[in-house]
Amino acid sequence: MTQYTVRGLLDAARAALTGDEASSEAHLLIAHALGCDRAWLVAHRDDVVAPVLAGQFHCCLSRRVAGEPVAYIIGHRGFHALDFALTPDVLIPRPETELLVELALQRIPQSVKVDIVDLGTGSGAIALAIANARPQARVLATDASVPALDVARGNARRLGIDNVDFAQGDWCAALGQRRFDGIVSNPPYIAENDAHLVQGDLRFEPRSALASGADGLDAIRRIVRDAPRHLHAGGWLLLEHGFDQGMAVRGLLQQSGFVEVFTARDLEDRERVSGAVARKAAA
Description:
By secondary structure, the chain is of the alpha/beta class. The chain folds into two domains: 4-66; 88-278, Vaccinia Virus protein VP39 (Rossmann fold, 3-Layer(aba) Sandwich). The protein is built from ten helices and eleven strands. The strands form three sheets. A seven-stranded mixed beta sheet has the order 7-6-5-8-9-11-10, with helices on both faces. Helix 1 crosses helix 2, helix 2 (22-34) runs antiparallel to helix 4 (51-65) and helix 6 packs parallel to helix 7. The protein starts with a strand and ends in a 5-residue tail after the last strand. The model has no long low-confidence stretch (mean pLDDT 94).
């Protein structure tokens, strides 16, 4: 019977994986299989691994080699200093989306009670990150997907964040007659025929959370159209979008009567989040 050490499994993973993240992914997969953290791996590189655990690791490695995202294999991903449980029912939180959270937090005072809604919450990452950083705020997290809401609710319970409510529905249809001080959303914004949808990690993520119409803007159009009816006067809307969609999204916001329209760039200097303020509450 082949005997495996931690070092041997790490070497096998690095040899099988490609890309700049190969070493990091190798550590994540073996830590998951062995039920330990990275510090333990460093201190125990020459330890012999039990055959059953080595088998679990090779299973995880095979799934990654086949293209499955590491976040789905290990079942969680960090976002805004929190750790979120994930399933293939929800989009994997990405670092660039933290810009959306930071822009929202700039608009939410620490000690003021405000009502915020996150449309299309998925895993709950955006809503829970905001709620965690602003405990006086009340955040409503919505999604059209019941399985996605189950994941988000589970994350709220596990993280002990209780100033979040949940509602099922498609974009603003979930809001009823309610009005809010701010609306955030990371909606699908990839064009339906984009070749990236059948490449890499995107193949495994829910298509409904990625693609939206011929130009990728269908969901954003709906949100921008309906949001004024759900914002108090002076309330704000923040939307994540593709790096080449800033001009189009700004145009949509202006057409819907929003003011103070802007676009913020991410850490790679790409247009990533556009936002605006409701001139007055719509009838």
